[in-house]
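Appendix C reproduces, verbatim, an entry submitted by the partner laboratory led by Prof. M.T., so that reviewers can inspect both the input and the predicted structure.
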Amino acid sequence: MFVRPQGFKYLLGWIIGGMRGGVTRAQIITALKEYPQNANQLATLMHKDYRTIRHHLRVLEKNRMVMPAGDGYGTTYFLSPEMEENYVLFEEMFRKTVERRGENSSEI
């Protein structure tokens, strides 16, 4: 089931720009674009608590932005086909969010 680009744009705006934790979720999406990882690998890479990463992965999975493969501790996460298809839109939304907040995207 694919989300139309306009609908996905609103979803991204809410998940990345409109909710607390949007920057962390954007960092997870960016990391998973490079290569699939599990929650522990993401926590280590991002210097964040494992439970925090798990929470954000659940939010992203619930909203069909990431997909799990496997079970338990070693579950590996990939970007969903919808996220892959709309990655340019994600980059645009993330850039706008960073600009609006006055943050430097290279620090994020």
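The chain has a mean pLDDT of 87. Additional entries are available on request from the coordinating office.
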